[in-house]
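Course assignment 3, question 2. Fill in each field.
Student: A.L.
Task: Predict the tertiary structure for the chain below.
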Amino acid sequence: MGYTNSPLVVYTKLSPNHSGQRTHSIDRITPHCVVGQLSAESICGCFTSPTRQASCNYGIGTDGRVSLCVEEKNRSWCSSSNSNDQRAVTIECASDMNEPYAMNSAVYGSLIKLCIDICKRNGKKKLLWLGDKNKTLNYAPAADEMILTVHRWFANKSCPGNWLYARLGDLAARVTAALGGSASSCLQASSLKNLSEAEAVAKIGPLFTENQKQSGILACVSMAQFILESGYGKSELAQNANNCFGMKTSLSGNSWSGSSWDGKSVYTKKTQEQNADGSYVTITADFRKYACVEDSIADHAAYLLGAMNGSRKRYEALAGCMDYKKAVQIIKDGGYATSHTYVQNLCNIIERWNLTQYNASAQNQGGNISGWYRVRKSWQNAASQKGAFHDLAYAKQCADANPGYTVYDPAGKAVYPVTQTASVPYAVRVSINDLNIRKGPGTNYGKTGYYTGKGVFTIVAESAGAGSVKGWGKLKSGAGWIALDFAARI
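Answer field:
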């Protein structure tokens, strides 16, 4: 096919770092966070040196201006995956320097416009976000479909950061709407309206199984909340806002990481609240409006995992709790609902529909079959737990998003990141002037503000961590950690 470049480009500086013309037609878009509030020009400047061994097709500067670094006809070096980069248009977006690597409205707005343009020029009417690595990589897009992929699926990185990762469903929906297509990968609550209760249960069940794999919250519990609070997805709030859990715009003054709500879409309606004496009062409240049901489920899980009550987590020990009766009580005790019969109502729903059949068991999730990987500051400090996961990959992602946290196996052994000392100390040579020194082993740790400069340095410890394929090395001087991708052992 004949390839073209985006007319949205306002600055071009072509990088020598590419593999020539693609061997696969374009059917993917991979947005990245550049980890810095850079201009369009500066993003291109990052990839001008052949020694950098990295590049992207497009850059979006902090003011929303778009630059061209590698022509769309050529394969960039951006995603740590040859097969992905052969078929993906890669986009580096200006962002904050620390997790969740937030992007401002100008950057996000330009990303939407650029994705629309890429799809149009490549004959696509839909942009899909499937939200699962295996499902995505095994999916064969139709001729009119483009699909979103992320760097973190191919390397030990948090890219594109949890801010954008949580909005990829919204990105896909906005782009698809502008293209005049329908985002078939995202479930709309309106599709549940004419289903029987049994049909609705069967339809939503797999969504909660997948959610448990990521969050560690029992599928049957979240699913029962969905049924109770949205009337099997048929409530006014669900049908008009894809909000299936009654999530208000403000919840007990809480904010939490990983929210899939865009922060501005609102649906206002009247609702009843129960007082301590059992009486009811009607109020008018603002509720969150989501692009799809999956976003509602994801935001609900993120809230249950991250909401705080003072210095303690509001729903402590919910993730990894395998007894649904205990899990439901934890939710009630945390103040989730005012109804005095909330616990019994949920348990009745679970038992009526045998919802435990949707729980992600060791047999059906292919993860750690013997127990849970737990993310904590230390094994002894159970109160610090960020989450519990059967799948080690998800546990690593959680640890990457929370500097200072470690993944522990069911026996309490630290399995990530693990500092290795057997092969140290040793010397490395750094051949670039601007290699950042960080406070810990990963791009999720802050920069010290200093660089190594060119020279020979001694490494006294190694550790895996976000943002480096080869791992991180601790400098003998005590100045901090450097990415070993840019250091040659001598």
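Instructor remarks: The two ends are 46 Å apart (CA to CA). Confidence is low (pLDDT under 50) at residues 362-370.
Grade: pending
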